[in-house]
Amino acid sequence: MGQAMIDLQHLAKQFGHQTVLKDINLTVNPGEIVGLIGPSGAGKSTVIKVALGMEVASGGSAKVFDTTMPNRELLGRIGYMAQTDALYDALSGRENLKFYGLMKGLAKREINREVDYVAKVVDLTADLNKRVAGYSGGMMRRLSLAIALMGKPDLLILDEPTVGIDPALRRQIWAELGRIRDEGRSILITTHVMDEAELCDRVALLLAGKVMALDTPAALKQHYQVATIEDVFLKAEGVD
Amino acid sequence: MRTIGIMNRVLKELFRDKRTLALMFVAPILIMLLMSVIFNTNSATNVTVGTVSVSHKLNRQMADIKHVTVKKYNTQGAAKKALDKETIDAIVKKNGSNYSLTYANTDSTKTATVKLAFKNALTATSINQLKSALKQSTTATVKLRAQLQALQKQQAVAKAKASGQAVAAQQAATTTATKSTSQKSPKITNHYVYGDQDTGYFAKMMPILMSFFVFFFVFLISGMALLKERTTGTLDRLLATPVRRSSIVFGYMLSYGILAVIQTILIVVVTVWLLGTEVVGNMASVIVINLILALVALAFGILLSTFANSEFQMMQFIPLVIVPQIFFSGIIPLDSMAAWVKDISYIIPIKYAGDAVTDIIMRGRSIFDLGFDIGILLIFLVVLTFLNIVGLKRYRKV
């Protein structure tokens, strides 16, 4: 299916003497949700940082949209949601969305339309004019996700997007992610929730700076001969 | 476009943070008011002057002046002891025809009061002395003339023989006459136990203080603001958009520049109208200089905030960065410092702004004559801004 949205080949990353990523091979194709799972400290966030060009690869190649990262202009086509909410709490939800929209390079008219749309997706329309300082943890998480969705980016990179979001809304968000995939856009998502990993088209298992496996959830379960992705995770880690 | 967007956002955040705003605008005014009250109102202070071998007439003249009490001492030693014990504020001692004044000078207003009182008393008493001096010198001139005439007669009689002697005599006579006149305006020497004649004047401090407040608050608040962006992750998220690193730095500069202009106008208005400080030069020039200083402070704050991991660590820069700025800003006279200490002041931005603002406020100089100070400030600004834009590479590699 065309060229890969994200194409990481033999990617390595060292910080000083500490090797975080040893050999990462990961592709995200158009119209695909790829889940990145692994224990904390495995290097999930570093993979994301290299893909965004915040860090430069020490070895191997990191390409996004067939262009070697880091590349500033490409960032306009990527929607990013970090583990921290990263919101300006003196501003209202609407002002946050507008500001990030402007930074992404959206046109004024487009921004207003997008604000209304993404607010509806994350169910924040009623609270859009309240200051973020008065938001609950879940509301902040939703606003943060809404910011990533602004401007219909071709690629979404979401770091733990559903932490602190209740089940009903989580389902709603996954439905939206499915719609995005069906439009031919791509999503790279890290998660700790294993039944979310089941919803991904492919899952990359990251362990000690290496991608141990990258396949569909069904194929992974078959390979490790277990019933759930959670068991795959445990077996790969050697906990058993 | 993005630069303006960032400016708008920073301004919005700032104007919604009422406490910080109050700190920026109210705190400098409060401190200025306090300082002016503390440094100026005790100008009507009472002083006690100890005198040693001063004429009765001069003593009485001084005692007649308001707020001045005179105590007579027989020896300089006894007076010195009283000065040390703070029972008197100054000693007036007559040495022959000259006066030697010693001030405790722990309070500059008292020193000024004594100086003025002594001068007035001396003028009053010397009017009489001048009269007699005039008489004396007139007599001397008459005498001289008589001598001259005598000499001329002598010269006519015995030309070659006595000429050498006559010239000598004439010279001697002239010297005596001059001496007797000069005695009538006594020499006054001033001694200070503490500091010198420049110690502590609010008027002198005011222009520098103004620059200091601008520097201090912009440094602290902008540093904190960027630190917050970093710790809450908004900086990372901002850098995950195609925004230029320079847009972020310039956006901050624009917003804090606007804030600094408002702050400077407020401080200038307060010092001029409320405290009655005279501004000789152009007020717009004062604002321009402080604007440049504010931008330097901003760039400095942003740069140092990258070395801090928390608000508390940012506060730790105050003794390291801010306090030395006070020392070398010119509030304490730099002339009296050792050469190598003085050299440190050349790397202190406030010194240049303080010099420039002092020149404008106190000497009425035009901003166009201050090219040197402004030039140095601009160099600071350009270098620090460049470092900041490059420094943001730590968070995004492009």
Automatic annotation (TrEMBL), chain A:
The keyword ATP-binding applies. The keyword Nucleotide-binding applies. Residues 6-233 form the ABC transporter domain. Coiled coil: none annotated. InterPro entries: AAA+_ATPase (IPR003593), ABC_transporter-like_ATP-bd (IPR003439), ABC_transporter-like_CS (IPR017871), P-loop_NTPase (IPR027417). It comes from the Bacteria. Keywords: ATP-binding, Nucleotide-binding. This is ABC transporter ATP-binding protein. It comes from Lactiplantibacillus dongliensis. GO terms for molecular function: ATP binding.
Automatic annotation (TrEMBL), chain B:
It is a multi-pass membrane protein. The keyword Transport applies. The chain crosses the membrane at residues 21-39, 208-227, 248-276, 282-305, 317-334, 374-392. Residues 157-395 form the ABC transmembrane type-2 domain. It is found in: Cell membrane. The keyword Transmembrane applies. Keywords: Cell membrane, Membrane, Transmembrane, Transmembrane helix, Transport. Belongs to the ABC-2 integral membrane protein family. PANTHER family: MEMBRANE COMPONENT OF ABC TRANSPORTER YHHJ-RELATED, TRANSPORT PERMEASE PROTEIN. This is ABC transporter permease. The lineage of its organism: Bacteria, Bacillati, Bacillota, Bacilli, Lactobacillales.
